[in-house]
Amino acid sequence: MRHHERPAEPGWRYRLHEIVFEADTPGGRMFDVLLLTAIVTSVAAVMLESVPSVRAQHGAALLRVEWSFTILFTAEYLARLAGVRYPSRYALSFFGIVDLLAIVPTYLSLLLPGSQALLVVRVLRMIRVFRVLKLARYLAGGEEIAQALRASRPKIVVFLASVVSIAVVMGALLYLIEGEANGFTSIPRGVYWAIVTMTTVGYGDISPGTVPGQMVAAVLMIAGYAIIAVPTGIVSVAFAQRAAHPVSTQACLACSAEGHDVDAAFCKYCGESLAPAREPLPVAANGDSSAAAR
What we know:
Elements: H1 12-21, H2 26-49, H3 52-82, H4 87-91, H5 94-111, H6 118-126, H7 142-178, H8 187-198, H9 211-243, H10 289-293
Helix pairs in contact: 1-2, 1-3, 2-3, 3-5, 5-6, 7-8, 7-9
């Protein structure tokens, strides 16, 4: 069997990988639904715990709920490590770090007893909101959006450089026109005003008081709409181009990367086979491999 061929009877690690990482298998869909429900419920519990009245009345129940979810997410984290060929790669990936941050604070709270560590424990507890980031792996089209942003990066960088240049020029111009009398005490202060005006935020803490300055402000206000529309158009075009090339939900067994083409045989990030070969079944003494499997 060649390395890129899909095995007819995958081993336990591959079956675990299909359930934990794949979204297009029955087991994977059921796992995703259950885990998604757990994530949303656990984040809701964390939010309720931050309400003083709720914490005072239901603190013990919320603590039991917290430990239940911590044990569940710990089992999920260990299953993800066991379901990949190189666990260290997943542990150091974005979602691996998020998964770890979702469970570490509860365990650390056991190591920091006493009132003097109350503030530290409170901060560690707030880190549990990182669980909401685990939802990112279930957002439909998330990989396509990320790839569209990466494809648009050169154009967006050029556009942002142009915006910064305009802000610097207009900020310096307003500094010369308005001066310190109207709050433009320096060029950086003028640049700040230009950025606030172009983004249509308009805090109002500083504004031009002369007619020439107000004319410049009017031009920047109109240009602000273009600043919002241009990057949106750039990303939309890239997203439409990516949508024309569908991708698979299959995750790499080695690095857990997703977003591969439907006909891809190897991971485009680490080069590993997307259908890893399984070691042959042990052969019994009589040469019957099926008997050995039993």
